[in-house]
Design goal:
It comes from Lujinxingia litoralis. By secondary structure, the chain is α/β, with parallel strands linked by helices. The protein folds into 4 domains: about 300 residues, no CATH class; about 300 residues, Glycerol-3-phosphate (1)-acyltransferase (3-Layer(aba) Sandwich), CATH 3.40.1130; about 140 residues, no CATH class; about 200 residues, no CATH class. Helices cover about 50% and strands about 10% of the residues. It contains 39 helices and 23 strands. α14 packs across α15 and α15 packs across α20.
Length: about 1000
């Protein structure tokens, strides 16, 4: 069907000439007659309607002929011996991740694939020919403006000259799509002007839209990216850029230079070229988004969508167009907020504004990062060596990282990892660089700016922050404006919300400074979108074990230096197991404001303060939730939970208790994240149970190890299940025990099933670090079990049990972060109901005088109690010193040392049960709690280097009666069998 109306041509709409003139594509297929798809004056809108049967048949005939005789631009179906060798030689170093391969394969299964790339490149096309053959992906049967078979192109040119007829490229692409053949489309040539780009590729996009409207099978436009160099284009093109193309849109010679450069860089572990497959555009769904658009408008919208995808992918991988440090300094110092602050500072101090500006410049120089791609590559190469020498590998949550990638396309990303080791500063940068994301700017403590590592860290993206802004009025404004500028440019920003490394393995209560700056910048409208990503960085073994042990026992923290890092024991000679990186769901700050009903642009200060505190605790809770459970953490928990601290534990008991821990954690909702080795071992859990039944068929009834079938097990079945789970992971646990044995922290005696394991006394603090990485999963159960034990009775009134558990929950407010907006009563009843489901307690349902019956002395309850018992003992040690603080204030640091010293004496006498209770961070938390409760008053005395903190019992508590009552309650929780 034709129309006699000549439509008005829109900007970017292909004309007849544009549809026909493709000088580099010379393929020709002989047809009985031309296909009737062109009108006299241009591309007719009649193409929007259904084709006639003759027209459809002619198109299918063309497609069949094109399929039988590949065009000169079609990818090779096989490479042959020499081309295969050449492909392996040239492209073995290119990273093509499995997720990208799977994405293409999924599109090919559901429809027809049209690959697209931004810039024409023969080298890239040849790589994808090689890669598609290697991974068995659909090969492109056509590519615009490209020749793969030159002899065939030469012959076809002669035929075209003789017959004076050629088929335009868009029509060939359409015919192949009708046959469900993949095609390839370049959007532009290097160094091409904007108007020429439209002429170059718009006819193909127009034809794609038309073709989709004429068929039911979806067409998937799949944007491909091949980054030979991870450096953004400059803001201003140089003369060389004009001649040879930019880094990301190179001409032939620059492409060759880029290739040679990345080839040797890959050899030296400086990074490698990578393929990125962007989100595919389903043209059926795309057209549904614009029901009123004709093919011309739709093709322009498709180009805009593709260009936006290209911009987003380039930004995520390469970052924004780089500015020099001097440019950033000028931009930050020119910000109105900082200009006003400098003026006010000059008026307040009586200085001239030029002097104040110089102070701001010095502060900027102290703070700002100066990232260099070369330095990042050097760090990458160095870290690859370090990981190989001290770790068995990294386990990265790739699904979580992909969520971060998607969010980074449209929002500023703030990465908030746990902080357990100095290596934390390097891990995320290494992961981001190797997974094709721009490495983050990292907020590092100013104590790490020492020479020579400080300048190197700065070049790798670190910016430095003082631990305190107290007494400063200009510094916090310079820091805030620099931070906002980095976020405005949408660089990922990484900071440690705990403020310092955890010496205990347990996450520290959050600090609010940087988070508050971001929240207020967002609330004021200075930042449009922020996504906060809680991240857990975990280690099977950390390199600072010995250092942490000394600090836990009261020694002063040593200032970081190059010599100090080099003296880290056996830094490059001992294996530390595996390293784990897990990502939680990003927190959208806009959604978080809306969730709590806060007006973003007109918030009250009190509301922002409360939101910042709540958000900080939410981040810590989320980090805990996604922390990987490592084999060393499981082993440490079992060894430390031995009620006789000096006794050995048999292999059978070790494996059964491991099974208890695994059973407990895997039935949580959602289940905890286990290390890859543990997951793989439990993946064959049913096979492990079958093996167990073969050994003792009369003792082990059939029990499924599937997680969703744990609810209705009786005691015997549960014991068999736990034993089977423990045996399933035995080989993984043996590797963890071997790491501890090599460090002389665990002694292994005997052979095979007769082995016993003894924890070295001096290693309890070091081993406790790993147990504390998982103890948060047991807190509600541990607190309830401790409260039950404190009554030393088979029947307990429900209200008294709830009150005792609430006391424990409040006691440890500075130890753990509880679930956001979860009311205590709901958590308590949920945990109690779970105890009842397990058969450990019975709860009467009478409305009045409800009772909790302990079915019998339960080993499980005692086991859960011991998970938190060392913290109860540490608090008791501090509470016992309260009489010493009545008469006069006592300095905090000497007080901590004195408590630890007395504790060690009592430990030798058997009056203190656990050496790990003598922990400086836990004792400091106890002091903080006593201050919060009003038991102690804090006195601060300024000093030359730092202030001195002292504590004294509050006058209201000075008679001793109230704090003795408090101590008695704590002693009851610690030693229930000895209470009246």
């Amino acid at each position: 069907m034709r129309t006699s109306v000549k439509p008005e041509r829109r900007a970017g709409e292909p004309t007849e000439a544009a549809d026909q003139e493709q000088p580099a594509e010379t393929d020709e297929v002989l047809l009985p007659h031309d296909l009737p798809i062109l009108e006299e004056g241009g591309l007719a809108e009649a193409s929007e309607v259904e084709l006639s049967e003759d027209a459809r048949r002619e198109r299918l005939e063309l497609a069949a002929q094109l399929s039988r005789r590949p065009m000169s631009s079609a990818m090779l179906e096989r490479l042959g011996r020499w081309l295969s060798f050449l492909g392996r030689l040239l492209f073995a170093h290119v990273l093509f991740e499995r997720r990208g391969i799977d994405a293409i394969r999924d599109c090919a299964e559901r429809g027809t694939v049209v690959y697209t790339m931004e810039t024409h490149s023969r080298l890239d096309y040849f790589y994808f020919n090689y890669a598609f053959l290697k991974h068995e992906l659909p090969r492109a049967r056509f590519a615009n403006d490209l020749i793969v078979r030159p002899w065939r192109a030469f012959w076809e040119t002669l035929v075209n000259l003789v017959r004076r007829r050629r088929i335009p490229g868009p029509r060939k692409m359409e015919a192949l799509i009708l046959r469900d053949e993949a095609t390839f489309l370049f959007l532009q040539r290097p160094r091409q002007k904007a108007e020429d780009r439209v002429t170059y590729s718009q006819p193909y996009l127009y034809r794609l839209i038309q073709t989709q409207r004429r068929q039911e099978t979806p067409i998937f436009v799949v944007p491909l990216f091949l980054f030979w160099e991870k450096r953004p284009d400059p803001r201003r093109a140089s003369l060389l850029d004009e001649l040879f193309g930019t880094v990301q849109s190179p001409g032939f010679f620059r492409k060759l230079v880029n290739y040679v450069q990345t080839f040797w860089q890959t050899f030296f572990k400086f990074g490698q070229p990578m393929v990125q497959v962007s989100s595919a555009i389903n043209l059926q769904e795309f057209l549904r988004e614009y029901p009123g658009a004709d093919s011309s408008d739709a093709s322009e919208l498709l180009r805009a969508r593709l260009e936006e995808f290209i911009r987003q992918e380039r930004h995520v991988i390469l970052g924004p167009t780089a500015s020099s440090r001097e440019q950033v300094e000028r931009q930050v110092l020119a910000r109105p907020e900082l200009v006003d602050a400098m003026r006010e500072h000059a008026e307040h101090t009586g200085q001239d504004e030029l002097s104040v500006r110089r102070q701001a410049q010095k502060l900027f120089a102290e703070i700002a990062a100066d990232p260099s791609l070369l330095m990042i590559k050097i760090f990458s190469a160095t870290l690859s060596l370090v990981w190989y020498r001290i770790y068995d590998g990294l386990e990265v949550d790739e699904e979580g990282l992909e969520r971060v990638r998607e969010q980074a396309k449209t929002s500023a990303i703030v990465l908030v990892p746990s902080h357990k080791s100095h290596i934390d500063y390097l891990v995320l940068s290494y992961v981001f660089y190797h997974y094709g994301l721009i490495p983050p700017h990292i907020a590092a403590g100013v104590n790490l700016s020492f020479w020579p590592l400080g300048p190197l860290f700065r070049r790798a993206g670190a910016f430095f922050i003082r631990r305190s802004f107290k007494g400063e009025d200009l510094y916090p404004v310079v820091f805030r404006e620099y931070l906002i500028r980095v976020l405005e440019e949408q660089y990922p920003v990484e900071f440690f919300i705990e403020g310092t490394r955890s010496r205990t393995g347990k996450l520290i209560k959050p600090k609010y400074g940087m988070l508050d700056m971001m929240v207020r910048a967002f609330a004021s409208g200075r930042l449009d979108a922020i996504k906060i990503v809680p991240i857990s960085v975990g280690y099977e073994k950390i390199i600072e074990e010995r250092t942490y042990r000394r600090e836990l026992l009261g020694e002063e923290k040593q200032k970081e230096s190059l010599a100090g890092l080099l003296k880290t024991p056996k830094f490059l000679t001992s294996k530390k197991g595996r390293l784990y990186v897990e990502f939680d769901e990003p927190i959208d700050l806009g959604d978080y404001f809306a969730r709590f009903g806060i007006d973003r642009l007109q918030p009250e200060d009190d509301a922002l303060d409360a939101l910042t505190v709540r958000l900080a605790h939410r981040i810590i809770y989320d980090i805990n939730r996604v922390t990987t459970i490592s084999p060393t953490a499981l082993v440490a928990t079992v060894l430390l939970n031995n009620p006789d601290r000096d006794a050995s534990i048999s292999r059978a008991r070790l494996l059964h208790e491991l099974g208890f821990l695994l059973h407990f954690m895997t039935r949580q909702d959602p289940p905890v994240r286990l290390s890859g080795a543990l997951r793989e071992a439990l993946a064959s859990r049913q096979a492990a149970l079958d093996a167990l039944k073969q050994v003792h068929p009369e003792q082990h009834p059939p029990v499924s190890l599937a997680y969703d079938e744990h609810a209705d097990l009786n005691d015997l079945e549960r014991q068999h299940l736990e034993s089977a789970m423990g045996r399933a992971v035995a080989s993984v646990i043996d590797r963890a025990l071997a790491i501890f044995e090599k460090e002389k922290q665990v002694q292994i005696h005997g052979k095979h099933h007769a082995r016993t394991y003894t924890l070295a006394p001096q290693a309890r603090h070091e081993i406790a670090y790993y147990r504390n990485t998982l103890v948060h999963h047991f807190v509600p159960e541990g607190l309830l079990a401790s409260a039950i034990a404190s009554f030393n009775s088979p029947a307990i009134a429900l209200d008294r049990l709830m009150d005792q558990t609430l006391f424990l929950s409040r006691l440890f407010k500075y130890e753990w972060i509880y679930e956001e907006r979860a009311e205590f009563k709901n958590v308590f009843m949920r945990t109690l109901d779970d105890f009842a489901t397990q058969g450990w307690v019975t709860l009467s349902r009478a409305e009045e005088d409800q009772q909790v019956q302990i079915t019998e002395p339960r080993q499980e309850l005692d086991y859960l109690r011991r998970m938190v018992l060392t913290f109860i003992e540490a608090y008791a040690l501090m509470f016992r010193r309260l009489p010493d603080l009545v008469e006069a204030p006592v300095e905090r640091d000497p007080l901590i040392k004195e408590v630890i010293a007395r504790g060690r004496e009592e430990l030798s006498k058997g009056q203190v049960h656990f050496e790990e209770s003598l922990s400086k961070p836990t004792l400091l938390n106890a002091l903080r709690l006593l201050e919060d409760w009003g038991v102690l008053v804090r006195h601060t005395t300024p000093g030359r280097r730092r202030e001195t903190i002292s504590y004294q019992v509050h006058a209201d508590w000075a008679d001793g009666q109230r704090y003795r009552t408090l101590l008695t309650r704590l002693e009851t929780l610690l030693n229930p069998a000895h209470t009246d």
